[in-house]
Amino acid sequence: IQHRPDLARLPRAGIIHRLDKDTSGLLVVAASLPAHTRLVRDLQAREIRRHYLAVTEGRMVAGRDIEAPIGRDPRTRLRQSVREDGKPALTRVRVQERFRIHTLIEAELATGRTHQIRVHLSSIGYPLVGDRRYGARGRLPPAAAPSLIVQLRSFSRQALHAWTLGLTHPKSGERLEFSAPLPDDMAELVASLRADQQASEVTQ
Fold it and tell me: How far out from the chain centre does Cα 49 lie?
């Protein structure tokens, strides 16, 4: 709104979809009411493609599609959980790189439930690094370097980044693709986990 005051007149200041607090990356904001109407419709029709990068605790063997309904956790209002009476949710997970006890994954949202990626990955035993709300325990590789231990213990947010986004321009009809590189904290974490993996291979 500070950048474009006219956005104050649009629903939710033109914001089409949400990112969780402390999740980095791309966000779609419409600049006019017709654009907002069209983009919201495209999002509901699953025509806006959203891919995320994340670092999980646990070494994932292979990618998978996680299809499990999500609803508010009855015990904690700030959490969501997989539950039979929840709303349908589908996350497509693909392995990008494996480390000793962590995994860099790509997740595509087929639906857009609150905390969806975090809830789904936690539900199959792979919580995101730093995501203590959803079960992260601060796992450390055996005999890890002191610098990596500090890095993992001090990672202060869920390791989740909205990486690429594809949409149809609401006025021109042109198909657009955007990407945002990993922010420094996640890029440094991945580099350290990669170095740890390589060092362990040398000593085997």
Answer: 13
**What tokens were used for 67?**
């299809």
**CA proximity to 120, closest of 44, 165, 63, 77:** 63
What is the rounded distance in angstroms from the CA atom of residue 147 to the CA atom of residue 193? 11
Q: Which of 120, 117, 111, 122 is nearest to 87 (CA)?
A: 111
Q: What's the sign of the alpha-carbon dihedral 157, 160, 164, 165? A: negative
Per-residue model confidence (pLDDT) at position 18? 87
Cα–Cα dist 166/179, whole Å: 9
CA pair distance 57, 137, nearest whole angstrom: 8
Residue 26: name the closest of 129, 127, 177 by CA.
177
Q: Which two tokens stand for residue 167?
A: 């949409």
pTM here?
0.92
Q: Which residue has the tokens 């956005």?
A: 7
Pairing mode, if any, of strands 24-25 and 160-168? parallel
Residues of the chain with pLDDT under 50: none
- In this prediction, residue 28 carries a pLDDT of 94
Tell me if residue 22 is catalytic: no
| Sign of the C-alpha dihedral computed for residues 132, 70, 17 and 58 taken in this order | positive
Given a contact cutoff of 8 angstroms between Cβ atoms, the answer to whether 31 and 16 are in contact is no
- Tell me what pLDDT residue 199 has: 87
- Alpha-carbon Rg for the chain, nearest whole angstrom, is 18
Say which of 20, 42, 73, 185 is annotated catalytic.
Answer: 20
> Taking the CB of residue 1, how many other CB atoms lie within 10 A of it?
11
